[in-house]
Amino acid sequence: MTGRDALREQLCGAITAPGNPSSDYDLNTDVELPPNRKLRAAAVLLPISLEPHGVRLYLTKRSSRLKHHPGQVAFPGGKLDEGDSGLEATALREAQEEIGLPPATVEILGTLPSHETVTGFDVTPVVGLLHDAFEPVPEPGEVQEVFTVPLELVTNPSRFSIERRRWRGTWRSFYTVPHGPYYIWGATARMLRSLADRMPK
Question: Tell me: the pLDDT tens digits for 140-163?
Answer without folding.
Answer: 888 999 999 999 999 999 999 999
